[in-house]
Write a structure and sequence with these properties.
mainly alpha; 9 helices
Length: about 250
């Protein structure tokens, strides 16, 4: 089936539309950043729990992270508010993404806006939750156990840089089912295509697990890889449901 754009736009019009959507997305992030700043102390405590619960008590009987420069706590609070604002603004960002790609869709396909925003937000938050509640605590425990013969001095800058990488890396990867749905709907990939390259996908998933997860042990990487494999299988099912009678239409 040949697709035709419902709204013809020139290259520069596309660039203008992209800029518009980026500006709106940044505006939503900024608004939620201001809201997060009002609760940044509580957010910091919540985000630091995965490592604090494994740290030995300090001189005052309470576990705390360290800092090595005067400006580091301030920059850390900015990172915390930014992490929070990105997750909070995710529905609005995905809506802006939808508004950008919708001109390339048929009129009946434009009605997917609510399912698209809901699905992308759901999987993004699910990935972030999986990173926070499963992967990150295991990573913190592993590293601290490895370094149990030494005095742990973990700086807030190192910790939250790692938290940002893990949480958003996993959250982005959890968008796979939504991406497959769109590609299948556009008839770029098919269920047969995904099945054909399943063994290669397994290898790619474990490579991604080794890159994103901060621990080199196979247990943590497997805990990350298994949900990704399940998401890949779910994506195959989604592609089959979207185009049940398709033969292998994937290119390459």
């Amino acid at each position: 089936m040949t697709r035709k754009k419902t709204d013809e736009m020139s290259f520069f019009e596309h660039l203008g539309e992209l800029r518009k959507r980026i500006v709106w997305s940044l505006a939503f992030v900024f608004l939620f950043f201001l809201a997060s700043w009002a609760f940044v102390g509580k957010l910091y405590h919540w985000l630091s729990l995965p490592v604090l619960k494994f740290l030995p008590p300090g001189p005052g009987g309470e576990s705390k992270l360290a800092f090595t420069s005067l400006a580091e706590p301030f920059m850390m609070y900015i990172k915390v508010a930014f992490i929070s604002s990105l997750f909070a603004a995710s529905p609005f960002i995905f809506h802006q993404l939808w508004l950008f790609i919708s001109p390339a869709l048929f009129p009946k396909e434009k009605r997917w806006v609510i399912p698209f925003v809901f699905a992308t937000t759901f999987f993004f938050l699910l990935g972030g939750a999986f990173g926070y509640f499963v992967v990150f605590p295991l990573a913190c425990k592993f590293f601290l156990e490895i370094g149990s013969d030494f005095q742990a001095i973990i700086t807030i800058n190192d910790y939250f840089s790692l938290a940002f990488r893990v949480l958003f890396g996993i959250a982005a990867l959890f968008e796979l089912p939504v991406l497959v749905f769109l590609l299948a709907k556009l008839r770029i990939i098919s269920a047969r295509f995904l099945l054909r390259y399943f063994k290669y996908a397994i290898v790619a998933i474990f490579v991604l697990a080794a890159v994103i997860t901060p621990t080199p042990d196979m247990i943590t990487q497997t805990l990350f890889a298994v949900p990704m494999i399940l998401l890949y299988l779910l994506s195959i099912l989604i592609a089959r449901i979207v185009n049940p009678g398709d033969k292998d239409e994937a290119q390459g």
